[in-house]
Amino acid sequence: MEDIRIAVIGHGFMGHEHEKMLSEMEGYRLIGFSDVDPAQLEDVKEGLIRYASNDELIQDPQVQVVLIAANNNQHHDLVCQAARAGKDIICEKPIAMNVEELDDMLEVVDECGVNFTVHHQRRFDPDFRVIKEVYDQKSLGDIYTIKSSLYGFNGNMHDWHVYIKEGGGMLFDWGVHLLDQILWMMPGAKIRSVFADLRNVINFEVDDYFKILMKFDNGVMAEVELGTYYLADKPHDKWFERHWFIGGNKGTAYVDGFEPQGKIIRTSRLLTNVQGTRTMTAAGPTRSFGPPVEGTILTEELPDVRTKHEDYFINYRKAYDGQEDFLVKIPETRRVLALMEAVRESARTGMSIPFEA
Ligand SMILES: NC(=O)c1ccc[n+]([C@@H]2O[C@H](COP(=O)([O-])OP(=O)(O)OC[C@H]3O[C@@H](n4cnc5c(N)ncnc54)[C@H](O)[C@@H]3O)[C@@H](O)[C@H]2O)c1
């Protein structure tokens, strides 16, 4: 099988990540980069082409796949341009600035008949895949809550990510991944309603904090919370916190960190109606919140799931050869965009927004 010949538009943060990964990935030949800012191309690796323009890259007959890693507000035009040149396209997330923009892109993509997918490599984050596996195993009974949270401690928003018109803000940056994970985890479940808070805690233009509640028709209330300004005096290796919690009527599970640590926890007998023992705690005397009866709490190891971001491109290669489906399907990304619009609407009005009837 010949290598897929791929070129990348945008040699910034993500462009560099793609350069590193695709230079080493089996099944790919990285051809080169274009960037509106020529200074960004100065450190392109030896042997790769530094295209003088996007157009030159897109029109290069040796390029089969164009990967778009430019600012969010550039995706629409670049996708349309690449599609019209007959190139297959991988676009960085978020696929577009809104549903309307995406629908416009899809008209062109469909007309040109090219492959089109989105780089949602965080579907392979190990912490997420462990919690997804716990969910898929269905051993926690009826799930009532799923909580996904991410906290940063330095309040740092940077570069164009601080401007609305460029597609800045944390909802577009990390929110799109966190929502995509929840929706992909429960593919058949519809979201009945969305209630969200979206704030500029320290940024002037864009959101740097959000809490999103989604009520699903399978009974799950999912909560996604992200804060960039949770100031704390953490040791350096704790500067970034990631947590999952999933609760059902037959057990709970938690996962902490991107290198997942956690447990599945059950009780040896249901504790619905035990004698109310009075326990003295720091919060004062309590019956419901005291420790469980000795020996009734059972813990299990989390499933051993090993995934890595390279798996995204392994799937892409197989899908390109017709051996698998592309992992990330456009209607899924459209649904996430629509959800983000409902999030903004809820945050603006302070109301819960009905979503999928
Ligand atoms: N999948 C992920 O985990 C992930 C992580 C970070 C960023 N991203 C996405 O990658 C994209 C780029 O983000 P970034 O953080 O790397 O930004 P960045 O600012 O570091 O890099 C963007 C680069 O694109 C160039 N550029 C802008 N407009 C262009 C145009 N019209 N044509 C050619 N080049 C253009 C800029 O000069 C810059 O070099 C965004 O869509 C972002 O959401 C994805």
Automatic annotation (TrEMBL):
This protein's name: Gfo/Idh/MocA-like oxidoreductase N-terminal domain-containing protein
InterPro entries: Gfo/Idh/MocA-like_OxRdtase_N (IPR000683), Gfo/Idh/MocA_oxidoreduct (IPR051317), GFO_IDH_MocA-like_dom (IPR055170), NAD(P)-bd_dom_sf (IPR036291)
Ranges for domain Gfo/Idh/MocA-like oxidoreductase N-terminal: 4-120
All copies of domain GFO/IDH/MocA-like oxidoreductase, residue ranges: 128-253
PANTHER family cross-referenced by the UniProt entry: CONSERVED EXPRESSED OXIDOREDUCTASE (EUROFUNG), OXIDOREDUCTASE
A Pfam short name: GFO_IDH_MocA
One Gene Ontology MF term: nucleotide binding
